[in-house]
Write a structure and sequence with these properties.
The structure is a homodimer of 219-residue chains.
Chain A lengths: L5 E5 L4 H13 L4 E4 L7 H6 L8 E4 L2 E4 L1 H11 L11 H27 L5 H18 L12 H5 L1 H14 L10 H12 L1 H6 L3 H9 L7
Parallel strand pairs in A: 1-2
Antiparallel strand pairs in A: 1-3, 3-4
Helix pairs in contact in A: 1-3, 4-5, 4-7, 7-8, 7-10
């Protein structure tokens, strides 16, 4: 496939947008990145995603697709070249979808509560620690959730590898460390060391500055 | 494939469990139904779904899969015979997943608020009316969301065709009628008339009795 229009509307601070860029790089698909200001979203973004009004919006030859997990499945089904995002076996595919949903519902909910409470929601802190233990257990002794190379669950879990890490530094709390979750911590180091990840995710310092610039400036 | 063990752990009142049974019937797959009492879940259910502790649990040759949308994708990928649940085209598949998620997040949230408030949450009532208008618009002039025959979005939307209908009757409110949403209402009649749906969904009266037996007995 050549002469295709592939655009990603996203923002530096969006973990969900970065997922789409990582998937496109895994497939070797060139794309145009359209930077959105999430406090003042573009008319184009709102036109393409009138229901959720969120990034990422993925545009392929003029047709929009929204919601990061839906986009990742689309990319995997459309570009057969490059690395697979989901496994081939139906049972393993189901397991990957389950864990991706687990991170996007339970882990994200707890993380959001912690961020909004400035780290003072003890129940959420405790819950997140337990959820990470469940993921650590699921990882077993694999290098990645996808096995020897990254796949759907790893891409979705960058919410843990980078965003959680930044949030706990910004708030001065410790939920996820080498001591609390040794296997998952090792995973996060391996993940952040992948060349595609390094070239796609924003610098830690920029993300830290972004998340703690306004709401936490006076803390 | 023969001599397979296919079990569905579910309950009469679970829309999510019924989805799995409908999908299996579309594929012509025989299965054993294990009836769960949701107020006293079995040890087997909790063993197979330790994280969410919910129905449905789908068991295929001893291996459990949970979450109805994950199970529906698994069934479609595993049994190629019978009717397709998702479309073949990647863009249409993405659209189906989007609308299934829309129903399971926004529509379900509003419906839950209405049920819990005994119909007194006016904001939720208004919101649900608007969400149904969005679905009505998406249906266009098709017979089903899946086109000429039912597919993923139709199966997921039985939350509207039967459950919403029962809840509004039980509460004595009118959100979804032939007047408010004529195309979607016609869809719900067509859907409820499909032979597979008729033989799978519980009788309206049983569902009504179940949902309004305890909490609303004194209303």
């Amino acid at each position: 496939m050549t002469n295709q229009e592939v655009k990603v509307f996203s923002a530096m601070e969006s973990s969900f947008g970065k997922r789409v860029e990582i998937a496109l790089k895994m497939k070797g698909v060139e794309y145009e990145h359209v930077a959105e200001d999430l406090s003042n979203k573009s008319a184009e973004l709102l036109m393409y995603n009138p229901i959720h009004k969120k990034v990422p919006v993925f545009l392929h030859n003029g047709r929009p697709i929204v919601e990061s997990l839906v986009i990742l499945e689309y990319i995997d089904e459309t570009w057969k070249s490059g690395k697979s995002i989901l496994p081939k076996d139906p049972y393993e595919r189901a397991a990957s979808r389950f864990w991706a949903n687990f991170i996007d519902s339970k882990v994200l909910d707890a993380l959001t509560k912690i961020y909004r409470s400035k780290g003072e929601d003890q129940d959420a802190t405790e819950e997140l620690g337990e959820l990470l233990s469940i993921l650590e257990n699921e990882l077993k002794d694999q290098k990645f959730f996808g096995g020897e190379s990254i796949g759907l669950v790893d891409i979705v879990a960058d919410l843990i590898a980078l965003w959680l890490d930044v949030i706990q530094e910004g708030l001065g709390i410790e939920i996820f460390t080498q001591q609390t979750h040794p296997k998952l911590f090792k995973w996060s180091e391996e993940y952040m060391n992948c060349s595609i990840i390094k070239e796609t995710l924003p610098p830690r310092a920029d993300l830290l500055a972004h998340y703690f610039r306004s709401a936490y400036a006076s803390k």
